[in-house]
Each structure stands twice: as structure tokens, then as C-alpha cells.
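Can't attach files on this board, so I'm pasting raw text. These are the components:
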Amino acid sequence: MVLWPHWLVAVIIIPLTGAVLTPVVGRDRPKVASLWSLGTMALTSVAATMLIIRVAQEGPFSYMLGDWARPYGIELRFDEFSASVAIICLLGLLALMFSYRYVAASIHESRIPYYYSLLLLNLTGMIGFVVTGDLFNLFVFMEILSLSGYALVAISGERTAEMAAFKYLVMGAVSSLVVLFSVGLLYAVTGSLNMADISERLAGVTDRLPVMLALAGMAMAFMVKAALFPLHIWLPDAHAIAPSPVSAILSGLVVKTGVFGLLRAYQIFYGAGNYDLTGLNTALVWLGAISIVMGAFFAIFQEDIKMMLAYSTISNIGYIVMGLGLASQYGMIGATVHIFNHALIKATLFLGAGALIHKTGYRTLTDLRGVGKSMPLTCMALSIGAISIVGIPPTAGFLCKWYIALGAFQAGQPFFGFALVFGALFIFVYYIRMVNSFYFQQPTHPEILSVGEAPLSMLAPVLVLATLCLVMGILGRLPLSFIEPAVLRMLGTFGG
Amino acid sequence: MINALWNNLDYAASIVLFLIGLYAVIAKDNLIKKFMGLNIMETAIFAFIVALGVVDGGDAPIMGEGARAPFTNPIPQALILTGIVVAVSTTALALSLVIRIHKQCGTIEADELRELE
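---
Top answer:
C-alpha cells for the assembled complex are below.
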């Protein structure tokens, strides 16, 4: 069962087919659309589980589409990093479940089937993005997930939603084009589009200028996708205005595809072996550190709870990118695991915030004062998320930040270790503000004390995620040791 | 330097086109113009990649009677076909967003929209 070779194709085909059929199946029947998309995602999760079991047993494996050998055919490659399909499927399932009640209240009924269709397409794009071994396919999947992402931001129909989506679209489209340009350059230099193949051929390339240009282009473009500090301007509006389950997916997963793209670019260049990446690493570490501080700084002044969470994403992307840039074993492991853990934590927070907004109709911290008494479970989950994202042990956020800090010392750059702790303090400040207004302040609107707890279809995903935040803190060794061989293989002689 | 540019005129031209598009995206206030800039950038990249596959005196790579080497590399063209599809869908989405923005705010000038916010 586990060894059935076609799981790797199935994990893309199932959600893609499901997404295309959703508007047909769920036409005028929003409930059917919801169940259909949940079923599709459940099937996809089965395929993803099989893949992960296999990669844990025997290491990375490939699937050649149509049995065409590398470099002629298109290769799907599943390595330890691709195991992120687990978190994509998990968040996908929970967000779809959460959407059931949420979109019924906030999106026009005729749009609901399209909403599910777009959400499934977005997830398909991400799954394809992490399992493909072909650079051009990477671009195509990136476009699938970006285009559906722009549409999902606009779907809420609120007044500024289209504007936010347009801003996101322009930044996203420019960065996608730069990726395409870099892919073209790499093709021109190596004559191949297969990542592993390019990596081998790059070692023998003597004219380094176009190759470095391609690397710079990819790094820049993926930084836009990941919303690293100076290139983040599209993120807060888009993530705050989108429907909450979409915010959870965008913030938890879609920005991570930028980081993942960087990771793939690194794989190619580390694999070639003889490229000096110190310049890029230094840039990433600095930009990461600046992102951590600036993201936290902006978040402190936000009144809107979702806006605050959106800025917090910028901080956390900073942590991940910094870990990548440190290029030491611990830093890299911490960064890759933080991709996973931050997705959990941020989804908890966004879905929790979504439940609050759904029940109370308010979205600023002042208006939400006192909500801790009327929605105790949701607020408890939000508090767990807040503790996790600050990185207080024993929660999920602690271990990866600890590893990234260790990585800074291992790389001989202790300054960044301190920057990280400083950033965490900053983050602590504004999450404390949130928790404070939930529990300890007099309500601005007395009627907030009488709203009930969120419905089960919303509460369950939030609580599952909050529990996972705690569990991943305690079982933190599991992902760390899972990803370790991949990182060691990638760093090769570099990190030691 | 001049010689190198002259020999790679196609590449240089697509870079210039790309920068023109980028200028429009950054500097123009009208959302449609912004988007036209983006389309210019797209075309520039497509031209660049198609130009990669051109072989001097190359023939269409269709095997069979009368086929004679050298052949033009078909892969970049196949890639760009996909790229065009992506570009078309981006354009469609952006234009529909512009229509909605105009309906809701009554303007599509970025500076006026900023004031409205």
C-alpha cells in the first residue's frame, strides 16, 4: 500500500480534480460544496500520509511522469522537506471545516462553491510546489497558488478587499516574473529544467555571472513571496482583510512557499558544491533580523487583531529566513521546523480570531475587551497560541527558536542570537496586550459578555491546533530528528 | 562591451523592455496602466526565453520526411505557451479586480484610492 508508486501523482491529482469539480457539484448547494471539499482533502491526506511513511522508511524518492528519464521527463521528487504536505493537508482540512459556518455568515451564498474551489486550488498549488522536482513546474504551481490566493483575498467583498488583492497581485506577479526569468537563465546556462540535474551541471559552469544573476533573481522574488521586511508591504492588508480561514492558510502556508522556494534554490546551489553563497547568506541573516524587529515593532501599534497577527507573520518569517541564512546545522534545522510549527501556531491564532469576529462582530482589541469571560475555550486556545509564538517552553515555538539561536552561536554570529531574543521580547509585548484585553480589562461593549462560545465546527479546529501547539513542544524531537538527515545532506561539507 | 551587446541584441532588448514595464508598474498611478506595465514585463520575459531557443538557420523540429538539422529548440516555446496561459489568467483576474474597485470606489487612480482609505 505504502509502496504504490502513484501516490505522488495522486496527491496532486486528487485535490486538483476536486477543486475543478467543486463549483459543479456544489452549485447552489453550499453545504454539498463544503462536504465535497472536505472529502477531497481527506483523500489527499491519505495520499500524503502514505508518502510521508515511505519517506521516513526509505528516504527521498522520485516519480517520473510518463516514465521519461531525467532530464527529459518531468520529475516529482519527495524528500524530507516535501513532508510539509502533512501540514498543508492538516491546515487545509481544519480551515475547510472552520469555513463551514464562517463563510455562510460572511460570504454571499452564490460565491461559496467558488470559495471552496479556490481554497482547494490553493492547497493543490502548494502541494505541487513542495513535491515537484522540476523548476518550470515549480513556477506553474507557484502561479496556481498565487492566483487562487489573490482571488481568495478579494472574495470577502469588503470595501478594501479588492484594493488589497490588487496590491498583492501586482507584487506577486512581478516576483513570479522574476522567478520565470531566473528559470530561463538557468535553462540557458545548463540546458536543463530538472533541479537535481541543474545542480549537477552548475558545478561545471565557468561563466558565473548569469548563474549568480539567476540566484539573485530567485532570492529576491521568493523574498517578496515570503514578505521579508522591505518587501512585505502587500502582506498586512491582504492577510487582515481575507476571510479568517483564508488568512490562516495565507499566513500559515502561502508565505512559507516563498521560504520553501529559497530552500530549493539553496538545495540547487549547495548541491553544485562550488558556489560561494556567503553574500546571500549575510543578506538573508540581516534581512531576517530586521524583519523580526520591524514586524514586531509595527504589530505593537495595531488595534485590529488580524492586522496584528499579520505583522507577527513578518517577524516569524524573519526567524525562518535568518535560520536559513545562518547556514549552520542547528540554524537550518530550526528554520525548517519553524516553517511547520509557525504554520500550526499562526493557524491557531487566525482561526481563533476568526471565531471571535464571527461571534462578536468586533475586530479591534479595544472592542474585544472582556471576551475571555464569554468565549473561554477560544480565548484559551488563543492564549496558548500567543505563548507558543513568543517561544515560551514547553510550546511549539520554543524549540525551533532555541535551535535558531543555537545556530547563530554555531555559525559564530552570536549577535543574531541576541537579536532573536530581543525580537521575542518585542513579540511578547503585543501578545500580552492581546491576552490582557481578553481577560483583565473592563469590556467596552457590555453585550460582549453574553455572546456564547463558538459553534463546534469552529471550536474543534481551533482546539485541535492549540493542542498540537502544546504537543509539538513536548514531542519536539520528532520533527527535528526527521528533518536532520535532509539538512545534513544539503549542507554537505558546508555546515559540518 | 558594445560588441557583446550587439551580439546579444535580443537579450538586451528584452531587458530594456522589462525595465520599461517595471517603470510603469512603479510610477503610474492608474491601475490599468500599472497592469499594462506588468503585461509589458511579461512579454519581455517571454521574448527572452523564446530567444534562448533560437538557432541560426534552425528549422522547426518536426521529424519525418524533409527534416534537416539544425533544429530550433522547442522547449522554450513550449514553456512560454504555458507562461502565456498564466499571464492571460493573471490579466483576467486583475481586470476584474479593477472593475470591482471602480464600482466600489468610483476611481482607479492609486493616489485617489489612497485618500479614500
